[in-house]
Each structure stands twice: as structure tokens, then as C-alpha cells.
Amino acid sequence: MKGLDSWLRELIHKRSLKDDKCQLKWVNTYLYNKKLNEIDNDMIEEIAKKKEQTNVSPARVNRLLALLRSILNKAERKWKCIEKAPTLCMRNEGLERERWSSKEEAERLLMELPSHLANLAA
């Protein structure tokens, strides 16, 4: 996919860069030698369906779609190399997961709370 080098150089600081590179390596089999202006909604949807067939969660498919959306939006708005970025349909991830505080987080919270609230939270 053309334009990928520019995107990677601009986002070298990204915490998820390693995962992004892994996702891009996977998607490269479908977008190899494609110009950014050749990528449309149908092509992205087909790629998302192929990703779903690898038995990953809807959240993982959404991470791939968000990555592609980021690149295509930058191609439209910043690099001006495509007229309009495709609109991507994200997957339903279901209910939000419950997250519990770790022991360390709970201890830190209790230390920061005023004593009258710390007694209630303990």
C-alpha cells in the first residue's frame, strides 16, 4: 500500500506501533501494490471479513479497521493524495467488559483519598 512509509515515519512514537506493523503485514497480502485511491469500502469490507475468518474477536477486527481508517484519513486530509477516504463500518464488540482494579491500584487509591472516603472504600 502506497503511503505507508509516510504514515509509519509520522507515528514512530505510537505505543501500539509494533501491533500496527503486525496488522499491516497481515493486510499487505490484500493491499499489495494497491494505490490509496484504489482502496474503497467494498475492498475494506472484504478485508474485514477475511480477518473475521481467522477467528479473532470483533475488537481485533475493529483495531485493524481503525488503523486503516487512520491511514486513509491522513491520505485525504494531510497528504492530499486521495479525494475522499472510505467510510468504514466498525464491528459490534458487544457489552463493555468489566474491569477490576489491581491490588496496587486499590492501594494507591486508598492512599490518595481523604480519610473519611478511604474508610468507606476500604
Characterise this structure.
- Helices cover 58% and strands 0% of the residues.
- With 122 residues, it is mainly α.
- It has one domain.
What is this entry, summarized?
With about 120 residues, the protein is mostly helical. Helix content is about 60%, strand content about 0%. It is elongated, with a radius of gyration of 20 Å.
Q: What attributes does this structure have?
A:
single chain, 122 residues, mainly alpha, 6 helices, elongated
Structural class designation: mainly alpha
General form: elongated
Rg, nearest Å:
20 Å
Give the distance, in angstroms, between the N- and C-terminal Cα atoms: 54 Å
Largest sheet: none
Helix-strand layout with pairing:
Layout: H1 4-10, H2 17-31, H3 41-52, H4 58-77, H5 103-112, H6 115-121
Helix pairs in contact: 3-4, 5-6
